[in-house]
Amino acid sequence: MEKVKSIIVMIAIATVLAAVCILSAVCEAREITELHIGYQPSTHQIAHMTAMEKGWWEGDLKKFGIEKVTDREFPSGPPEMIAMMAGELDVAYVGTAPPITAIDKRLDAKIVAAVQINGSAIVLLPELAANYTSPKDLKGLKIATFPPGSIQDTILRKWLMDNGLDPVKDVEIIGTKPGVAITEIVAKVVDGVFLPAPSPTIIEMGGAGEIVVYSGEMWPNHACCCLLVSEELIREHPELVEQIIRTHINATEYNKEHVEEAGEIYARKVVGADVEMVKESLKRWDGAWIYNPHLEINSTVEYAKVDYEMGYTDKLLTKNDLFDTSFYDKIMGIAPTPTSVSPTATPTPPGFTAVFAIAVLSAVAYVILRRRF
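^ thats the sequence. predicted structure below, dont judge the formating
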């Protein structure tokens, strides 16, 4: 009998110890030593390029265990979101529209900071631009822009609808890459393009087209690029996310104070960029570099409505589906509102779940032993 008791006690102890090991492994955050950042070849996102060139990413994140920061260029937001959904990116500099369709398809990520507003323009062939007076003049034209679900596609379609045009029947909208769009307007394969800076200025300076309307006129102070971070980082490495935002803020402020240098950084980063054209673009564009996510919420939520109405998403996404402003608010000393919801606002103490579960298992084992003997 004593031998049986000993065996049962040993089994109970082994069960608890096994639970300790398993739960500890589950609750321990995955160690991250390399951070992967996505971006696009647009002057909208020079903050990332500046932080990368000056070594601020690796320098600022080193204390959080990050040994290496790698980045990857994408032609537009939709393919960038595909890469993020595949787990290839931790952070993305991207328009606020592409995350809407991606999050609708279960991308686990949130917008944590703004990057830039406005900054795109419609460019028409010179002969068409000479007679342009209103959106109605685009009827029957072929316009190249970024793919469906991008900022440019969303803004263009909404603007056309707001002005009484059917974006499917009245205008032929072609989703493509910026380089292809530029080539097509130069070759007169399309009648115009709607692209982010610096492309409109490059086309105009090359004599292939003329800017007829800026995106800030189409939708005043609309959200454009944002800083998107995976929910895994938000949940498991909140201190790292906070520093990512701080570094982004510092790079943004630096660029605002050193615009010419920002243009030079862009030209060194993007293959084939002409530094003088880039600098001229920064003089002509209607964009502005920002970092306050609250400035992008209203128009981004409106993008979500447009995407839902056009059938790009299955669900009408809300502010809470798309944004986590808690990190920015903490950095800026902004008190959370009673209705704000953030997964990092009231974090569970590290290991609490494991300790609680172990305590329950221990209690169960004790009860079993008591009843047995």
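Residues 3-27, 338-373 have pLDDT under 50 and may be disordered.
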